Amino acid sequence: MKLCIIGTGYVGLTTGACFAEVGHDVTCVDNDEAKVALLQAGGMPIYEPGLEELVHKNVAAGRLRFTTSIAEGVERSLVVFIAVPTPPLPDGSVDLSYIEKVAREIAGCMTSYKVVVDKSTVPVRTGEKVAETIRRYCRARVDFDVVSNPEFLREGYAVEDLMHPDRIVIGVQSPRPVPVMREIYEPFRAPIIVTDLNSAELIKHASNSFLALKISYINAISILCEATGANVQEVALGMGMDHRIGREFLQAGIGFGGSCFPKDLSAFIKIAEQLGYDFRLLKEVQRINAEQMDRFVKKITDTLWVLKDKTIGVLGLAFKQNTDDVRMSPAIELCRRLLKEGARLRVHDPKAMPKARAVLPEATYIEDMNDVAEGCDALVIATEWEIFKKLDLERARRVMTHPIMFDGRNLFDPREMERLGWIYKSVGR
Ligand SMILES: NC(=O)c1ccc[n+]([C@@H]2O[C@H](COP(=O)([O-])OP(=O)(O)OC[C@H]3O[C@@H](n4cnc5c(N)ncnc54)[C@H](O)[C@@H]3O)[C@@H](O)[C@H]2O)c1
Ligand SMILES: O=c1ccn([C@@H]2O[C@H](COP(=O)(O)OP(=O)(O)O[C@H]3O[C@H](CO)[C@@H](O)[C@H](O)[C@H]3O)[C@@H](O)[C@H]2O)c(=O)[nH]1
Q1: Residue with CA at minimum distance from ligand 1 atom 4
Q2: How far is the CA of 98 from the centre of ligand 1 (A)?
Q3: What's the per-residue H, E or C state across 28-55?
Q4: Of 302, 341, 369, 397, whose CB has the highest number of CB atoms within 10 Å?
Q5: Is the pTM of this model over 0.95?
Q6: Which residue is catalytic, options 28, 109, 260, 335?
Q7: Spatial contact of 2 and 74, defined as CB atoms under 8 Å apart
Q8: What is the DSSP string of 332-376?
Q9: Would the keyword Oxidoreductase turn up in this protein's UniProt record (predicted)?
Q10: What confidence tier does 201 reach under pLDDT thresholds 50, 70, 90?
């Protein structure tokens, strides 16, 4: 099937590569000329495990190409996916100007029937607006369908999630585009659910908000664990073994971040408000998340007292492991808080240092994680990278002024750390 994806970011690029991998003919469009030139030259704008090989392989096979021209992509394809940003406005609502602009541009160059599929995360009722806009701006007066097909991939695991999705959601206004959408997804052998447009849009915001709720829930439980000497990881394990609860998204830590949860939560609260419902449950999820960071910073200041002129080593800058993405990263937020208190920072991340330098220029960037501890008054673990578990703890202890570690992601075993001579503080244990 001939597909066009408008917006070649995390979602557009990874989705485009996976569609090509299963045999579709894919044109990825982006208005960022530098990004398109980089991709055309064989470069990669993001780090995502397995993506580079997939892109190169499918470009070489002639199934995947990059362009800055929406007209070219639309002309060539039957199905046009929209994967542009839907960033937050200052009041928490969604900036839909990217979606509206692209809808107008698609309409302007349609000369035959198209299925226009929204993959960006949007407020309920956006699809209806997209359909209205296309109808209004389509000079050729051709027929079209609008579909909502939300994306559930996780950064760092995007290829895996796209190739083996839990489910595919297809929201439609009529049955007409359903066979085409089924044909696109047939090679992925995943359950497909067909809903109305509004339900599909709600599924995305409701899912992300529920996952964020799960994290805030376990973070709240971590407070009770600290107050009683219980261990939040054992509590999470015991809860999660009930299949109705599930083990995932019960990792206590310094809170959730990233380009999705914080903005989607604010958006959903705003959408609910506009629909006449005060979603207090989700406001509490936000509050717990913010307080989790406050509590962790307090843990550091309570132990180190004055941070001015102290040197702190921070391991992790990405908003989670396996990615170089630092958008709304709790690790970056933590670094800013420590800098504000006057601390000097020595920082390291396996993949995110180039992107972090742009938003956190004040820190000293260290190439080898085992060199970070040199001369530090404390070490902080801010991102859950597995590789940090291999840190040379003996060497770190020797080169620090004091062997103190604040583990915001519970990577180490508290008893083992004490045995090794560390003052070790983690979350909920
Ligand atoms: N990042 C994720 O893990 C993820 C997962 C699921 C859903 N989403 C949603 O998908 C959407 C895209 O997110 P992302 O992380 O891929 O964003 P991104 O910023 O990485 O990529 C968006 C791309 O769209 C391009 N763009 C903007 N306006 C354009 C236009 N008029 N024409 C052509 N290209 C244009 C930008 O240059 C950019 O390359 C958002 O709604 C997001 O909430 C993101
Ligand atoms: O038990 C957990 C799980 C995650 N996190 C944090 O939560 C944030 C988000 O993690 P994750 O959900 O794995 O990453 P994203 O790539 O942002 O993916 C989420 O947001 C995407 C964009 O909407 C959705 O497609 C995905 O389904 C949804 O998981 C990160 O800061 C994690 O450190 C925790 O603190 N504890």
Answers
A1: 11
A2: 9
A3: EECCCHHHHHHHHCCCCCCCCCCHHHHH
A4: 369
A5: yes
A6: 260
A7: no
A8: HHHHHHHHHTT-EEEEE-TTTHHHHHHH-TTSEE-SSGGGTTTT-
A9: yes
A10: very high
- Ligand 2: which of 154, 388, 407 to mutate, judged by most atoms within 8 Å of the beta carbon? 154
Q: What is the pLDDT of residues 118-133, one digit of tens each?
A: 999 999 999 999 999 9
Contact 63/3 with Cβ under 8 angstroms? no
Using CA atoms, how far apart are residues 311 and 297, in angstroms rounded to an integer?
A: 15
pLDDT tier for residue 386 given thresholds of 50, 70 and 90? very high
Structure tokens at 14: 């990874």
| pLDDT in the model for residue 212 | 98
Q: By percentage, how much of the chain surpasses pLDDT 90?
A: 100
Q: pLDDT band at 300, cuts 50/70/90?
A: very high
**Distances in Å between the alpha carbon of 66 and those of 26, 86, 400?**
9, 22, 49
Work out the average pLDDT over 156-169. Answer: 97
Q: Give, as one character, the DSSP assignment of residue 6.
A: E
Tell me, which fold does domain 229-429 have in CATH? Rossmann fold (3.40.50)
Q: Report whether 80 contacts 12 (CB < 8 A).
A: no
Q: Distance, CA 66 to ligand 1 centroid (Å)?
A: 15
Same fold, 2-190 and 229-429: yes
> Domain 2-190's class?
alpha beta
Asked if the ipTM is above 0.85, the reply is yes
Q: Is 260 a catalytic residue?
A: yes
Nearest CA to ligand 2 atom 28: 154
The domain ranges of the chain are: 2-190, 229-429
